[in-house]
């Protein structure tokens, strides 16, 4: 992680006169400390008590001076108490002193001082060490120098300095009294001014503040000064206390080995040091600081509201947003107006007339034939016109008709026609012809209304049917201008003369003829078709040789050539790919953990219980020892087979090796709390570990790790409570940074070592491991964890997904041929017969015993004179059971279960689905389209849903034709003109295809084009899915219209040959006619749709309710859609048992820093002075809105910019490095300016700022200059990868400015952070003229969300447009196609609304599911809409007065024709499969597949089977006959007549036409 590229800064700010810092044997431990007064004399230390003397406070008098020795050989010189007068230096002998004084403290400093020349030299050296931290802010630097110059040399020391304790030392072998502690009185004005001038000074190399290094991160001026005054082993040699301005405070520390004595007795309290501090925003250019170091000098950016502020300021009405509130109000008003208008029309009787086809006239019900009596006016009224308004309204709203209708629906369909009691004018009569339909004087119709399909004989006609009812008249078209239709209302008497040829649609005729011929060919040559089709598919499947799976998330979710993809590519090429990280969290384990088998090595401690962070400190001395042992174990790990160690693969920017490989593990960047102790606890005790840790985290530069870069406390300690020391952290974090590269060899080496580390961490996290025994929870991740866990999740999902498909396959195979219902009926009837026999026998015994007691003897019922006793009835029942029903039951089982079953045909349907998936995948692979996991999981669902529906439609349509065929003795009862009775299997199959082929083609065309248009989207995941889906649907339709038709013909021949399903070699003996009487049956679902669902759905009151219900659903869906968020929580894609779930939870709970972000400047000549000003920030010549200044200004509003840390500005540090005042930063030799010096040299001088060639020459040297205590601005550690040089290293092609995002916890945070970074980059590009772009590791995963809403709108709009256009072509009606499109749109909207309710985010995965929803919704709607268009009454013209009635009739017939097939074929199939998916462990499958697919199926079913029929009955277009004039035209009309002969609601619907005004 580039966050670890921190400058190796270890400054010894021993600013109080000690030369010890320059001879410190371990400079890493040097800490910033105040300047200490001391002489240059050195002697052994001794201690003596100092006699008390009188202390005088006055101007010109000192408090301390010179040096009285050291406390240790490594300690600094300690000054002597000296209350004498200050020394005046104004003669020629003091020129050198005065020159040194002016250089150190400024020319305006008093020449009368209390310090010696030796003290000035040490002061100068100490200040120069602090200079790199604060030199770029003149105000801070000058205040810093003035403050310590006053402490060391002010002639008025006695006024503000007080020696509080002394100690006895030795110097030159003589005992001395030295200062032990002092009080430095500072006024609030100077202290706060000094603090504010330095508070925001940045140290760019560490993305931090200088205050963190010199002030311990102090938040006020008193804490700042007290931190610098603390006595430390390698800092200030004595204690400097800073009393609060309100009074003196006790010293912060005291000597441990001496008893301090009062050295002076102050006669008066001190006067605080109150010089005027310099402000960072001073108008003086020599004092004024730049924007990054002084916020008041920054340019003000345009105000911008954060997302939270925008949310809080949104329009609301109470607690409800204005938009949903407006929708609810509009809906309520519209509903109230519609209700009032309906009541008005009911009350005024405007809905009473029947002649206009309005079905709202008769008690709001669609009447069955047997309910005709209920349609008569109440007794005493000649008509409904005589009713009062109140009586009429009460009657219209009555539910009595509904109860009567429901009750009558249970009666036998063969009921007599209700006789009329009121007369009607003959002009209102409708001539129905002589086809078995009789109309009385009132216009009411009787017919063979309840006849089951297939029972078309004339022996069981209704009493009101004349003789003609026993025979059927076959209508023809040749030379005829009229058409007769059995059971179908045509035209009224007035329009009989105007009858003409049936209305047709030429395109439909062409399709019908084509599919008729295709069906005939496939049925005539089934084996040839199967062979050719399978051969073609086999040849196409050769494309599997080029099959590839795309797993790269960049290529999966980012469009090739998109800006974000190009930016990542440029960044990787210029600076190298982002580092690999191995991260471990240690936290306190919950009190109760789920016990697991100790022998299960696959369970991690993170799996033991749901994430529940414990609010307890994790650190203790024992925990530190355990962490140390863990780190030592990891350093010692060796991989196989290459024997790689951490040093072999880690990132080591400070390694002396030229290839960057660490020479030892100490060179590796390892961010750990133990880094503050240099990976050793030898000098740490259980008593002082917390104190030392808190001191190190307050000043990271004081406790550098072995790799030499300061540690950010937020990266190693997490969950620190506010106001608590870091030792109270709730988590310890260890991060190993591993090198990454575009070189595959480097990546393989890293992955090999990561595999070894993974095994160690998995064992460490075991519940029986050492960590658990220490009550620690281990949450971990390595570089390969995410990919491996996603693969594991996929492998875990495979069984449940396969089981889901197997369940659906089994359902299809069983239910297609009715074998399941056959078995159920057989068992049910057997149980019924058994129960009837038991009840009958028990009844006979009971009655016999009862009568025997009455008569004194048992009387046999057969002795009854009339032979009609109980005994006779029982014998009759028994005989019936034995001779009839049982016999028929056996024959039924043989025929319906063994022969009529289509299990093998169902398997053919499944094979076709699988073959279409395989073939389309092979074709796409051959075309170079890679498959994705989304495709692998979603395409089978889509094709199965669509394909199974078509299989059911074709099979059920063929069953309708087969039901007309009668065999055996029944054939003699058939009419000579009963054409279906003589049709060959090939003819029936051809006619089936002629009817259903165009419907299947229309549906497949809509879906293929809709999916194909999705390929226009740039996102590869969506584009590839669209291509695969379009290909799979197209191939599936082609195979179903050829292969399945051939298989259907073979199965039909098997059935007619009485061969057993699945075992066609075995035949069943032919059954007697009586035994097969009920062989042709209607399924329960079909009968329910025909007799119950359709009539009740099309009642006027029901239709009004449906419209109101779906209008409310539209409002709720729109409101819910507004709550759909963006994103995809990666934890959902993982198994619940994955160790990464706990790791991500730990990151959210404990990591208090966001990911690093790089703002890359590309295409700008950085060596030119004008461009330097566009980049820099720390100098007065920099532009106000330069790159660095804008980033700093944005950082100050993190709620908008999501930036939290100061940027690392390479050009500022480079120019500062060239500053001649920083003499320790060696650049060129003084004697040879063209020769760069080595780090050991210090004789260097450079004047001015480099440009052009000089700029590049010094940049190259700067990038090789190490970062050390002497020169912390060296660029090797911090900026070696921040600049991309040309191949000749003569130009800077690109450079980046590193900063950090604020902590990002939610998906919205990540998305907003990316959007903010892109906005900032766009503004910088506009201002600088350069190409500026942001880069962070997570951007590529969230790039799609910036356009996914518009992308979703575009994809779905294109799909809906395709549905409307293709539907208009196939249906021949723009209006009906519009209704279908509107239904699909409402389905999509409801799915999106459910996503908002279920908290399912919008992401590429859910977008794919929405595209699937289009296909499913079309499948539910297309067949019904085409059946509606083709279910006209023989295709004859319909008068305008009857158009509404015609729409209702055609809607009911459409539901009867395809409703049951759609429900059982797609609805039930997918619901069964989806139910299985809810048992998966993958939350991703449950959320984005099970839930979304469930919403899709339910919504599509409701809209397609409830709303669409209502819309069609109200607003559908006029229909046409499904006929052609060539070859197969005549059979259509006859088929339509027979098809709808036995429909109870037909006569009822027709009867509604009889009351015309």
Summarize the helices and strands and which ones pair or pack.
Blueprint: E1 14-15, E2 33-34, E3 53-55, E4 64-65, E5 80-81, E6 87-88, H1 95-105, E7 112-113, H2 117-134, H3 138-153, H4 157-160, E8 161-171, E9 174-184, H5 188-199, E10 202-203, E11 208-209, H6 210-214, H7 221-229, E12 239-241, E13 264-266, H8 307-312, E14 316-317, E15 320-321, H9 322-348, H10 389-396, H11 400-408, E16 438-439, E17 445-446, H12 506-524, H13 526-540, H14 553-557, H15 563-575, E18 580-588, H16 621-635, H17 646-649, E19 670-671, H18 689-698, H19 713-716, E20 717-718, E21 731-738, H20 744-764, H21 770-773, E22 776-781, H22 785-816, H23 819-855, H24 870-899, H25 903-926, H26 933-962, H27 970-973, H28 985-1014, H29 1020-1056, E23 1059-1060, E24 1063-1067, H30 1084-1097, H31 1100-1121, H32 1139-1150, E25 1156-1162, H33 1169-1175, H34 1187-1195, H35 1198-1201, H36 1210-1217, H37 1252-1264, H38 1276-1279, E26 1283-1285, E27 1292-1300, H39 1307-1328, E28 1331-1335, H40 1339-1342, H41 1348-1371, H42 1374-1397, H43 1404-1430, H44 1443-1477, H45 1483-1515, H46 1530-1539, H47 1544-1551
Parallel strand pairs: 1-2, 3-13, 9-12
Antiparallel strand pairs: 4-5, 6-7, 8-9, 10-11, 14-15, 16-17, 18-21, 18-22, 19-21, 20-21, 23-24, 25-27, 25-28, 26-27
Helix pairs in contact: 1-2, 2-3, 3-5, 5-7, 9-10, 9-31, 12-28, 12-29, 13-29, 22-25, 22-26, 22-44, 23-24, 25-26, 25-29, 26-28, 26-29, 26-43, 26-44, 28-29, 28-41, 28-43, 29-43, 30-44, 31-42, 31-45, 41-42, 41-43, 42-43, 42-45, 43-44, 43-45, 44-45
InterPro entries: HMGCR/SNAP/NPC1-like_SSD (IPR053958), NPC1_MLD (IPR053956), NPC1_N (IPR032190), SSD (IPR000731)
Domain SSD: 892-1050
Biased composition (Polar residues): 406-420
